[in-house]
Amino acid sequence: MIHERGRVIAVEAGAVQVETLRRSTCSGCSANAGCGRGLLDRLGIARDRGQVRTLPSQRVAALQLSPGDDIVLGIGEDLLLKHALLLYLAPLLGLLALSLLAAQFGGGEPLIIVAGLAGFLLTWLLVRRHARRHMDDPAMQPVVLRAPVGGPPGPV
Q: For the chain, what are the domain ranges?
């Protein structure tokens, strides 16, 4: 299970809106100069915070969460890997498949390029449709694992 800290920004019936701080490791990465994320951070374009809709787990359901509470989110590694592959690999496979299909039928270079772009777009739309269809599926949502008890340490 991958854990991430967040802060509750809204409480809905059966769900919690959480804001997480996006941490960049660009200062320690060897590919900092050629990385798109590092470039966006240097230009100040990247947002520092992300919002996610989460479901409280059975243990946390008894807690009365309110806006401003710090919590710990969790998502399974297998779910994250599956969706990362679906999001990144499927459109590229669509691009490749339709490009090869157009080349197989003797299409010229412009037709192959258009077919590849059409395959990319079609597969991207299918992935987007799949994501929207399963948006409210509890098995595909991050869950609130716990609300950390105690605040910052007091004076000694």
A: 2-146
